Amino acid sequence: MFLAAVVVALAAWDAFAGHLPVLHDRWDVALIAAALLPATFLVAWLLLPLAPSRALVALAAGGVALAVLLDLAGLEAGFNVTKIVAYALVGFVFLQLFEALSWVVLVAVVIPWVDIVSVYRGPTRVVVEDEPGIFERIAVSFSVPGEDAAARIGPPDILFFALFLATAARFGLRVAATWTAMTAAIAVTLVATYVFDLNGLPALPAVALGFLLPNADLLWARARQSRARAK
């Protein structure tokens, strides 16, 4: 099963990356952007068949429970990759709360601004700066060769990535283009943090744009159809 192979590969990398030769920072960034980020978000794509499942809530709860157990057991590599699965499944669960595509589009328009405020003025900033241990536990880590340090992405970024990807599948939008655009936009955000020597940038604007831009014409057409039916 391809999903299992990707999950095992991610866990193996997380477990053994620290034993590899150290690379220059620019190569670490390139490795994460070109390989680890796509592999991580590929998990969400491969989980898509579960998005309409009636057992989705139970599966998401099971994923969260397994992640907690692996954390308590000290199995860091398994814990890290299980968080990816759990967050993606929770994102699918949130989609079940939306009855119309327009609701998701509204979320995609609003959530980047909420994320920007949170990162620079709100709870995300407080957690990252004042309680870094909490952020490190809940975030998904991208280990780099030969070092204990890692790049990290927060739970909401994966959750909304999964929500928007499942939205594309559910409402007949461009799934492959959506996945590609969201993944590329997050990779560009990561590279920008390195190039401009920043502590971090909000990722949800990239996720939202990656959903909206490749589907803009379809979303506009759906909106026009909805207005026509309302008349």
Tell me about this structure.
This protein has 231 residues and is mostly helical. The chain has one domain (2-230). 74% of the residues lie in helices and 3% in strands. The chain contains eleven helices and two strands, in the order H-H-H-H-H-H-H-E-E-H-H-H-H. Strands 1-2 form a two-stranded antiparallel ribbon. A hairpin with a 6-residue loop joins strand 1 (140-143) and strand 2 (150-153). Helix 4 packs across helix 8 (155-170). The protein is globular. The model has no long low-confidence stretch (mean pLDDT 92).
Essential attributes:
globular, 11 helices, 2 strands, mainly alpha, 231 residues
Low-confidence stretches: none
Radius of gyration: 18 Å
Strand content: under 5%
N- to C-terminal separation? Answer: 49 Å
How many DSSP E strands?
2
Shape, principal axes of CA atoms: globular
Number of structural units classed as domains: 1
Helix and strand content put the structural class at: mainly alpha
Instruction: Give the oligomeric state of the chains in this entry, treating copies of one chain as homo and distinct chains as hetero.
Output: single chain
Give the biggest beta sheet: 2 strands, antiparallel
Quickly count the helices. Answer: 11
Give me the side-by-side strand order of the main sheet. Answer: 1-2
- Please estimate the helix content: over 70%
H/E topology pattern:
HHHHHHHEEHHHH
- Please state the average pLDDT score: 92
